[in-house]
Amino acid sequence: MFDTLICNGTLVDGTGAGARQADLGIRNEVIADIGDLGDATADRTIDATGQVVAPGFIDIHTHSDLTLLAEPHGLSKILQGVTTEVTGNCGYSPFPISPERTETLRETLSSVFGDAVPWTWQDLEGYRQAATEIGLAINIAPLVGHSAVRGMVVGFEDRPATADEIRAMNYQVDQAMAQGAFGFSTGLTLPPSAYGDTAEIVALTEAMARWPGRIYTSHIRCWSGYHITGVQEAVDIGLATGVPVQVAHMAVNDPRHWGEADTVIEVCEDAVKSGHDVTFDVYPYDASSSGFSQCMPTWAQSGGPTALLSRIRTPATRQQIRDDMLEEGLFRGWPWLWDRLLVSTTHTEAAKPYEGLTIQEAAQKMNLEPVDAALTLMDLDDARLTIIFFYRTEEDMCAFLTHPLGMMGSDGLALTPGTRVGAGRPHPRSYGAHARVLGRYVREKSILTLEEAVYKMSGQVADRLLLQDRGRLQPGYKADIAVFDPETVADRATFEDPHQFAAGVSHVFVNGALAVNNGAYVGSCTGQVLAASQS
Fold this sequence. Notes:
Layout: E1 2-11, E2 20-27, E3 30-35, E4 42-47, E5 52-55, E6 57-59, H1 67-70, H2 75-78, E7 82-87, H3 102-108, H4 124-134, E8 139-142, E9 144-145, H5 146-153, H6 163-178, E10 183-187, H7 198-205, E11 215-219, H8 226-241, E12 245-247, H9 261-273, E13 278-282, E14 288-291, H10 298-301, H11 305-312, H12 315-328, E15 341-345, H13 359-366, H14 370-380, E16 386-389, H15 394-402, E17 406-408, H16 429-444, H17 450-457, H18 459-465, E18 481-484, E19 505-510, E20 513-517, E21 520-521
Parallel strand pairs: 1-4, 1-5, 6-7, 7-8, 9-10, 10-11, 11-12, 12-13, 13-17
Antiparallel strand pairs: 1-2, 2-3, 5-18, 14-16, 15-16, 18-19, 19-20, 20-21
Helix pairs in contact: 5-6, 6-7, 7-8, 8-9, 13-14, 16-17
């Protein structure tokens, strides 16, 4: 007797092994049995004929820390079959915090909806309690972020940390590990994480040495020429500390180096050959997205968003920012391709008319030079402007996606249209990344097999996080399950119209409870804030 019986499906179990026909029974939140269960009875039976039954997808790179608290259903993700979001990436976690610096951290996280919910916590345990009280549709596997740790101890100014401050930050990282964080993340072009040098990051990553399997994951320094150097810095930090390394959203962004994906991958391959544990993640698009503030000179961002906005609104300082932008280039050397910078999401009525325009088009509308239009938009939008960067190629992305060391992470957020966190024109990765892999890169382009793709979105990620009871279809494992039609699963979100749910996912279970039934979300909130294994 099962709570749910999924019968006649094609099981792709998340290990990379070949698909097979089998039934699957769920009882008390876990997978109770797999095989020929034709004689079994169940409270609910789902006929999965012609469909794939797979582990619920684990998105290793997300920024849903606060969107899931503001809107806990996370429809953009669960309707793709995502059952676990790894949060706290790019140095951006909402903990730890001190009361006197909470507001600045919230402002720093404005691009990931830092102001969407009241902050009632100071550490991971408090965040877990807040999320539990709200109730989540999907699971969260949290990382602790360098920007939060540095902001709490050092502040948000551009300066080196003292020895005492490094010891205090090391303690905060250790405390987060003790409370179940799955690792430590940096965002080395995103202040205040960007203000830490390699020695500081090594000292903080050393806090994980007594927590086996916890990962160091890095949004690398992606400045001009750093597509290799930045990856090497992440690898060197891992080598110095003995901690596994995850290179975040691997890409080649500088147009002068497009086509060099294999050279970047070699840095990781060489580390693995020498016995070190290095992997990376990638999302299936040729464009990225982030707050435009990180495109400003680093010195201008010191002190946080309010300080940056004040500088933009001070004529002499604004002129210096403008001059440095033109002299340095984008990210210290990339060419400014204004027609490849798309205004994604704005936060004020004054800036809203420019959503969906490139900076070049906005400049023409304003009758300004592009750099001046960019600064004007930052002024109009209170320095919170979000941009999509068309600075990548599909060929490089495919090289990363298909490599054995690569796994899929969306770099997106769990969103629900029509809510506080469902505004603007966000990158379509939040609504379509997982379905896009299955539809475009498995079915249409055949650069991945179905088994490889599911592994990259479930079992491989679970292995990376040492999740010992998720990511596979196996008796005794948590019943996080996605059922989809391999002939129709597809992304429908576009850059022009991103708020469109994926197609082809019929059923989703989270911790054994039915969350999506015949393609419709049923309102279940059985997700948890997971804790890393203490062994």
